[in-house]
Design a protein that fits this description.
Radius of gyration: 26 Å
GO biological process, one term: regulation of transcription by RNA polymerase II
InterPro entries: ATPase_NBD, GppA/Ppx_hydrolase, Ppx_GppA_C, Ppx_GppA_N, PyroPPase_GppA_Ppx
Mean pLDDT: 94
Keywords: Hydrolase
Family: Belongs to the GppA/Ppx family.
CATH architecture of the largest domain: 2-Layer Sandwich
Protein name: Ppx/GppA phosphatase
Length: 491
């Protein structure tokens, strides 16, 4: 029985809602919305949330409640973070918000906030060891992950918005310097952070996403999504120095910076630059998944340690349920692909990444029929690129889309797509089992079955794959009936 759950994250700068349809241990994103409410604006000094910021939050949440009703939400999971956590009038504000919206908020501790960010990352990114950070409006969370386990977590009481309010009156250069010093002092209180030295940094939140968008615009690159995107850690200092020399109005016109973030981007980057100087990471990764996805996985898996054993396998199974892929057929093709990949590994120079891409493509290619059986390859490629598929590096994920489309423009994609076609032909159209691929000798795949497959091979839908793979990869298929000494090659 499916259940629609709305997860609301009321932050210091923005408020977000994600609606998911949960069915057992699978889920489907239904709706997502964000609004910039600046709840922590004006809180610096007396540590009280202002009436204006509270009214902005209430107006936003009322709209979220209406949108949730329109999407048949069964269950609400509203959480609030640093603004309500730090404010002296936080309890009063929470009661007013609950009275005016009907939503019952749970105020996360800093450590809980960091843990949910970790859960959002560990269940959607194929990284074993890293330091995870989330620079918010009024706090910054940092967590150490080793062997996909949360080791330590902490929350610093400084973020892009409150640092701007604290030091903005001193001018841009001084503001950035003072924000960096304050972040460094807070970070120094957690000696364990040094254990993350030289590990990759994974960034959640608007500061990390804005930095990645600036990098993409500056390098004239494109990516279908930011999740998992990698950029050099050295870029943080370079961009911070450039941005702090520009006016806020000029920053507002830059591609990659939202207008509401133009004023606070430098204080957010000042915190991030402090992390980079302290930890000296080799690279920086961006995660689009964070607190809301962490709450989702805890709600869905229902264990004290809601971490999936394999990000890719879990994501593939979820993708298959979502797009109603026949798992028996997909498994048959994948098993054949793995058999052929193992036998042809040396001849075709296949590495572990190639085999992973081939396996994933075999499991997901059937998704195209969910849209329509005609042009199913194009539909499958689109769904791969624009759905929640996790567990691959960005280059591998985009290669999977090329392979399911049978795209021959890239040599690597051509090789793997031909192997996928051959696997489909053997497993689905001819009914060959992996163990019937008796051996590969030179450039010949020898198949021994109890049936005279050679009599029907040329009449099957994709019989042309035999010629295509012979011409492109110099590989032929030979069939032999069990007990017969004669071999017949597919031409």
């Amino acid at each position: 029985m499916s259940n629609r759950v709305a997860i609301v994250d009321l932050g210091s700068n923005s408020c977000r809602m994600s609606i998911f349809e949960i069915d057992g241990e699978s889920y489907r994103p239904v709706y997502e919305v964000k609004q910039n409410v600046r709840l922590a604006e004006g809180m610096t000094g007396n540590r009280r949330l202002t009436d204006a910021s509270v009214e902005r939050a209430i107006a936003c949440l009322r709209q979220f409640v209406r949108q949730g009703a329109l999407h048949d939400v069964d269950e609400w999971m509203p959480v609030a973070t640093a603004a309500l956590r730090q404010a002296e009038n936080g309890d009063d504000v929470r009661r007013k918000i609950e009275q005016d919206t009907g939503l019952r908020f749970r105020i996360l501790t800093g450590e809980e906030e960091a843990r949910y960010g970790f859960l959002g990352v560990v269940n959607t990114m194929p990284i074993q060891n890293a330091v995870i950070f989330d620079i918010g409006g009024a706090s910054s969370e940092i967590a150490l992950m080793r062997d996909r386990a949360l080791i330590r977590a902490a929350s610093l009481p400084y973020g892009a918005l409150n640092l701007r309010e604290m030091f903005g009156r001193y001018g841009e250069q001084a503001c950035v310097r003072m924000a960096s010093d304050r972040a460094a002092e807070a970070l120094a209180e957690h000696a364990w952070v040094q254990e993350g030295e030289l590990l990759p940094l994974i960034g959640l939140g608007g500061t990390a996403r804005a930095l990645a968008k600036l990098f993409l615009a500056e390098t004239h690159r494109k990516t279908p999504r930011l999740h998992g995107f990698e950029l050099p850690a050295s870029y943080v200092e370079v961009k911070l120095k450039q941005l702090q020399q520009m006016s806020v109005n000029k920053r507002r016109k830059m591609k990659g910076i939202a207008k509401h973030r133009a004023e606070i981007i430098t204080t957010g980057l000042a915190v991030l630059a402090t992390f980079v100087r302290t930890l000296k990471p080799p690279s920086l990764f961006v995660s689009r998944c964070g607190i809301r996805e962490g709450l989702l996985f805890e709600r869905m898996l229902g264990s004290a340690d809601p971490v999936v054993p394999s990000v890719l396998e879990f994501s593939v199974r979820n993708f298959q349920r979502h797009f109603r892929i026949d798992r028996a057929a997909a498994g048959a093709v994948a098993d054949m692909a793995m058999r052929l990949g193992a036998e042809l590994s040396q001849r075709l120079n296949l590495d572990a990444s190639d085999r992973l891409v081939l396996w994933t493509a075999a499991q997901l290619e059937g998704a195209g029929a969910f849209v329509h059986p005609e042009r199913w390859r194009d539909h499958a490629a689109y769904l791969v690129l624009h759905s929640d598929l996790y567990g691959l590096r960005p280059a591998e994920w985009q290669l999977v889309a090329q392979v399911v489309r049978f795209d021959h423009r890239d040599p690597r994609a051509k090789k793997l797509s031909l192997l996928l076609r051959l696997s489909r032909w053997l497993a689905l159209e001819l009914g060959v089992e992996p163990h019937e691929v008796s051996r590969v000798k030179g450039g010949e795949i020898q198949i021994e079955t109890g049936r005279r497959i050679q009599d029907i091979a040329e009449d099957t839908a994709d019989a042309k794959v035999a010629d295509d793979i012979r011409k492109a990869l110099q590989i032929t298929c030979s069939f032999r009936e069990s007990g017969s000494a004669a071999l017949s090659s597919a031409r």
